[in-house]
Specification:
Layout (H helix, E strand, L loop, with lengths): L1 H9 L7 E6 L3 H18 L5 E6 L7 H9 L7 H10 L4 E4 L8 H13 L14
Parallel strand pairs: 1-2, 2-3
InterPro entries: P-loop_NTPase, Small_GTP-bd, Small_GTPase, Small_GTPase_Rho
Pfam family, one: Ras
Keywords: GTP-binding, Membrane, Nucleotide-binding
Length: 131
């Protein structure tokens, strides 16, 4: 794992956009965005745009998934939680998709290209005022 961590970061300098994904059906993967992926990306490439993507959208209302998560005192990640996290990590966009249903997949790639070609201008930093 440590070797993979080192190798992965070698590709970061050539990155134009990061797509950080988590599974809507896995609260631990959602937490990993905050505690692993965002800090790593932010450390190595603080000015590169980030898209946050909730995957496996089809499992959000899946009875088996809901039952399994309930047994662990968990629940699927809501759209609002995804939006909230995207704001916390200053992602340019939050999207949800389902590879199984082919829902939202093209949007992820469209928004990734848009984030590179039409970057959101950085907010000017407020100057320090001395009185």
């Amino acid at each position: 794992q440590e070797e993979y961590d080192r190798l992965r970061t070698l590709s970061y300098p050539q990155t134009n956009v990061f797509i950080i994904c988590f599974s809507i059906a896995s609260p631990p993967s959602y937490e990993n965005v905050k505690h692993k992926w965002y800090p790593e990306v932010c450390h190595h490439c603080p000015s590169v745009p980030i898209l946050l993507v909730g995957t496996k959208k089809d499992l959000r209302n899946n009875p088996e998934t809901m039952k399994r998560l309930k047994e662990q005192n968990q629940a699927p990640i809501t759209t609002q939680q995804g939006i909230s996290l995207s704001k916390q990590i200053r992602a340019v966009k939050y999207l949800e998709c389902s590879a199984l249903n082919q829902e939202g997949i093209k949007d992820v790639f469209t928004e990734a290209v848009r984030a590179v070609l039409n970057p959101v201008p950085a907010k000017p930093k407020k100057p320090c005022v001395l009185l």
